[in-house]
Write a structure and sequence with these properties.
The chain has 253 residues and is an alpha/beta fold. Helix 1 packs parallel to helix 2, helix 3 runs parallel beside helix 4 and helix 4 packs parallel to helix 6. It holds the Pfam family adh_short. Keywords: Oxidoreductase.
Length: 253
């Protein structure tokens, strides 16, 4: 898909992978709306790239509906959606203090999985009535899974299961939307330089990066964004989950 003049929505756009993706899309001529629970963060990145920043709780139906409507008023219906919003909540299923708090588990599922589905359903609904572009495409949806979907570590039950569900969502969504020319893919990043990762001591970051076979470092948000742009450009990329991890395979702990 050619991105020049195309409306795009990026969730989690106030920082990390989402911000880098917003910058890449804007540089390619897209009209970018950045959604984030941190509205100030989204607005700051939007001001930098000439887009718009919108406060949004992706796990809430009304909040997401209002945000997508706001973006459509500014740029027209989105043909591109990149789901980057997500949270991590480490904890054993049964720890020293007993079973994991169910609300803590549910919060991760609500944001990482339900939030992804929520925006997918809304953006797809807006793209379906649009005229097809060159090659018959109407839209492209890229979600963010994780290598934890395949090699979840001890203490990652909530995060790993939420991301495994994103993997499971990708193919049926791609099959459903294929007749309308809407492609659906997902990216499964390994260890990346995100705000959460940058909050760790430098020696911990260095140790984690050294565990990556090659290149032996943390991934950069710009590298995630580059893969998003490659998916958009290649019409045969559909229904696929792509690992972006430097050949990393996570150990049990």
């Amino acid at each position: 898909m050619r991105t020049e003049g195309i409306a795009a929505i990026v969730t989690g756009g106030g920082s990390g992978l989402g911000a880098a993706t917003g910058r890449a899309l804007a540089a390619a001529g897209a009209k970018v709306a950045l959604l984030d629970l941190n509205e100030a963060g989204a607005a700051a990145v939007a001001a930098e790239i000439g887009g718009i920043g919108i406060g949004c709780d992706v796990s809430d139906a009304r909040s997401a509906e209002a945000a997508v409507a706001h973006a459509a008023e500014a740029h027209g219906p989105a043909r591109i959606l990149v789901n980057c919003a997500g949270v991590v909540n480490a904890g054993r299923i049964v720890g020293r203090k007993g079973p994991l708090d169910l609300a803590a588990y549910a919060r991760v599922i609500e944001i990482n999985l339900i939030g992804t589905f929520n925006l997918m359903r809304l953006v797809a609904a807006g793209a379906l009535p649009l005229d097809p572009l060159e090659g018959g495409e109407r839209g492209v949806i890229v979600s963010t899974a994780s290598v934890a979907a395949y090699e979840g570590q001890i203490g990652q039950a909530a995060y790993a299961s939420s991301k495994a569900a994103v993997v499971g969502l990708t193919l049926p969504a791609a099959r459903e939307f294929a007749p309308a020319g809407i492609r659906v893919c997902a990216i499964a990043p390994g260890l990346f330089e995100t705000p959460m990762m940058k909050g760790l001591p430098q020696e911990v970051q260095d140790s984690l990066g050294a565990a990556v076979p090659f290149p032996p470092r943390l991934g950069r948000p710009e590298e995630y964004a580059a893969l998003v742009m490659a998916i958009l450009a290649n019409p045969m990329m559909n229904g696929e989950v792509i690992r972006l991890d430097g050949a990393l395979r996570m150990q049990a702990k």
